[in-house]
Amino acid sequence: PPLATRMRTQLGTYCQQFDGTLRPLLEDLTTALAALDGAAHDVPGRTLQTPLRELQHQLRALCDKVAEQQAYVLIFGPLKSGKSTLMNAIAAAYVSEVSSLPAYPCLVFVSAGPKRAYEVSCYDGTVRTHHDAGALHRDIELAHTQLADAIRQAERRGDAFDPQEHFPAAIRRVDVRVPDSDLEATGAVLVDTPGLYTRMRFGYDRMTRDFRNAAACAIFVVKSDTLFLEQVFAEFQQLLELFSRIFLVVNVDSQKRDVAPDGKLVPSLEQSQPEAVLRAFEQLAMSAPLLRAKADGRVRMYPVDLLHAASSALQKQPQKAHAGFQAFQRDLGEYLASSEYLQAFLGDSQKRADSLLRDLRQVLAGDVVQALGERRHELRERAE
């Protein structure tokens, strides 16, 4: 059989074995957490609830990712850079209503599904399902107010805010299922990242930990007129450390005009020669680490009129898309179908599992578990 078919068969076998090995551990954690939830307040093990619930969430996300052979593609960029428009174009379905949810510091996962649905997951393990965007936005609006209050209370106490400790009811992630999209063919899951700002910084820190060994690649979206601003790339060095492949999409405005010497309006340079803008950026403003990554093939740049690309995709006329978007879409698809990605998927899922199991062993080897064991032994002796 063709190499691609053999690769897909091997991946399917691996995913079944991986899920069959780890999934039973989730059932054990569920049983343990239920017992701890019902235990008396003086039971030593109650303090295990937070770390065990966190590990349960991480293991479930990993098992689901591997079982469904999902390719997480994280999308970064400054606010109003065109991330939501890019998601519309990639999915060939309208998903703008969930992108950049009122700057709430959670991740939004967009994947294929039989019908449109929104699932809200919180740090305490609760899950709420909505079937229309209006209900989702009302949920987020209320959650945002409650989260802001919890953050202010932590600040007044002088505590570094952590949602697990200070507000477990905070929303951790939102899963969106989209019918009739191009995501079904690729198995890609688009992950919209939160806007980064100081008061919600914990969201970004936790996000990078969650995806250090979980995501296939990253897309960084930047507007062409902010391409040369140094602060736009303040987070880029961290992305270079996290991802083996980054697609840099430069959002160009095809309607932009300049004034000619005779006073007439003419197409701007970024409209008529977008590649020239990218060359100038590479020669004049690109940092040394970014230059090295581009030379190594880890970073690829594409000038794209995202509004035009999204419009063409939503009208199911991909042949009319900007040449830059067609090149980006082709390269992204080829990477997700490549042996390079397959190797990264297998290796990263194993590293992530090893890391989580190591963390679980460390929790179970702590003083709290020892105290719980001693209490259990004491009760057995009294019972006898």
**What share of the residues does DSSP label as strand, in percent?**
15-25%
Radius of gyration over alpha carbons?
Answer: 24 Å
Query: Overall 3D geometry?
Result: elongated
* Regions with little confidence, pLDDT below 50 for 5+ residues: 196-200
* Helix fraction bin: 40-55%
- Give, in order, the helices and strands: HHEHEEEHHEHEHEHEEEHHHEHHHH
Report the major sheet. 9 strands, mixed
CA-CA gap between termini: 66 Å
The chain-level mean pLDDT equals 82
- Strand runs, count: 11
| Overall SS class | alpha/beta
Task: Please tally the helical runs, counting DSSP H or I stretches of 4 or more residues.
Answer: 15
Which strand order does the major sheet show?
A: 4-3-5-2-6-1-7-8-11
How would you explain this protein's 3D organization?
The protein is of the alpha/beta class and 384 residues long. The protein has helices at 3-37, 49-67, 83-91, 133-157, 163-166, 183-186, 201-211, 236-242, 269-272, 274-284, 288-295, 306-314, 323-336, 339-364, 367-383, and strands spanning 71-76, 107-112, 117-122, 127-130, 171-178, 188-192, 217-223, 246-251, 257-259, 265-267, 299-304. Strands 4-3-5-2-6-1-7-8-11 form a 9-stranded mixed sheet. A two-stranded antiparallel sheet has the order 9-10. The protein is elongated.
Task: Summarize this structure briefly.
This protein is an alpha/beta fold and 384 residues long.
